[in-house]
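Lay summary. Proteins are chains of building blocks that fold into shapes, and those shapes determine what they do. In this project we predict the shape from the chain. Here is one chain we studied, written as its sequence of building blocks.
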Amino acid sequence: MLKEAHNEAEERMKGALEALEEDLAGIRTGRASPALVEKLSVEYYGMPTPLMQLATISVPESRMLMIRPFDGATLRNIERAIMASDLGLTPNNDGKVIRLNLPTLTEERRRDLVKLVHNRLEEARVAVRNVRRDGIKDLREFEHEKLISEDELEEGEENLQKLTDKYIELVNDVGVRKEKEIMEV
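And here is the predicted shape, written in a compact code that computers can read:
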């Protein structure tokens, strides 16, 4: 019973960490990365669709992304989605592909991006703590239903706290790496 609750909590915390890493991949650093735009939602026949399902995204140069749609009719929609996003990039459309030139980041923009990273890190920490709270609630229900003893409840809560501390530390490590990447000139 304790092992199952512990494993479920660990899976959910791992999911929160993976979601954070995926989210941070979309935050621009000094170099081009397809992760910057691949999750961008594009209107495709009335349905919002991730860009990576509509086009190939390549990095021909260190500061350029090239988006080649599978269907030429989606070119305008992709362009509109990029313009409407908070990326701050202007697409260059030549009729077949869209090129995105990434300008160098100013010091002020780097600081703004670091603030954004800190906000996302705090959201991930809250998600990890929510998993701990749910796990403890489950353990207390088990104890209330006499499925586990009071000592087992205490042991389970300690294990959940250790797990939470481990994942909070992992979230912080991801944040330090991303901040260093953003501030790198």
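What the prediction tells us: The chain has two domains: 2-25+106-183, 34-101.
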